[in-house]
Amino acid sequence: MPTAPAKAHALADATTSESTLRRFLQGLPGVDAVGLEARAASLGTRSIKSTAKAYAIDLAISMIDLTTLEGADTPGKVRALGAKAVHPDPTDRTAPRTAAVCVYPDMVATAKAAVAGSDVKVASVATAFPAGRAALEVKLGDVREAVAAGADEIDMVIDRGAFLAGDYMKVHDEIRAVKEASGAARLKVIFETGELSTYDNIRRASWIGMLAGADFIKTSTGKVGVNATPANTLLMLEAVRDFRAATGVQVGVKPAGGIRTSKDAVKFLVIVNETAGEDWLDNHWFRFGASSLLNDLLMQRQKLATGRYSGPDYVTMD
To answer: Is the pTM above the cut of 0.90?
Structure first.
């Protein structure tokens, strides 16, 4: 399946000017908020059998971007996070690895060394994360620093102020510029859905991101009050499904922030399967930005294997 960069597709004319982009976005169907939330809630009530649950837990582990994005991050903390990504359960080497470790640009080299020899990717937030309030050249410098240090993936934030002011072309062009600066690294575009106010805005932001070359669209930074929800993730999954139908280009989705339990993770996987389909049930196309989730998944995994929960020291707390 083709991925997003440098695509020439049926929707390319939508971004030739501010007026064509605005016309395209305003032509998107309005979101039925009540219907969207009801469908997300309905999918969240579905139960799965124990054998399917074991598969879902391992799949969810393999989809996690294990993340530390704090001012107090140290090389030692990042090395420990990398070790946990490679071997989430040191007592059980059958536990799958996480998809990636996500850090600030200055910690990319440390993270790369920590996961060397594995297939765990190193992702880096960039573009003046989490606020995105900086000049474009500063944002691009952030990206280039991370890529030069070896980042496999870049998680950028959009300029929410520009978006909310209706300057859609500025948002689009910044994403395009970041995509170019990212080179071979895959680009995840963060909308900060909690600040976009409406589902219609989330739909429009999703299409702007995809039209501009995003490899993933991502709900949130995890730094605001409202982050990933079943409803906003369902809406974004509908967008990537429809985008692939229109262009042949597949784009991934990453809900981030607030997903803490195995039960939550399974709900999201059901939503993926029922909305976008099985093609997205792979860590190349779906990720969880939820580090604390890993601990609960590991405890539930051990419970399925042994019939009992482990003690409080079974997993490392981070």
So the answer is: yes
